[in-house]
Amino acid sequence: MIALICAALAWILAHLTPGLSYLVPARIPIIVLLVLIGLALDISGLMSFRKAKTTFNPLAPGRSKSIVQNGPYQFTRNPMYLGMFFNLLGLCVYFENPLTLVAVVVFVAYITRFQIIPEERILLAKFGDSYAQYTRSVRRWL
Hints:
By secondary structure, the chain is mainly alpha-helical. About 65% of the residues lie in helices and about 0% in strands. It has 5 helices and no strands. The chain has helices at about 1-15, 25-50, 80-95, 100-125, 130-135. It is elongated, with a radius of gyration of 17 Å. About 25% of the residues are buried.
């Protein structure tokens, strides 16, 4: 939901400030690449959770059965949020307006503060030292 709100924010910013528009060389290939990266991260993150037979519901991190460390979780603790980041970035390139990047910053700040940090507290309480070690060896975003 937050990603959709931020996408709407990007659209609003682009339409309120058309004078800031610029041309992006190779715009379509860049958009396709960003969206494909985003989708690959989202799908591989979900598949890793499914393979581990644990919940991927971001509203219920306490129901996690294990710490997923395979697939994209080897290089980012939040591949699905990172995937949404890349999709939003692709949308910003589509709009060709630098002000739309505010929506990406809002997304990262909000998700980090109100979703990721609370999830991490719950997972640390549940899995202790093994989760602490994971957070030391794998970055939150990239």
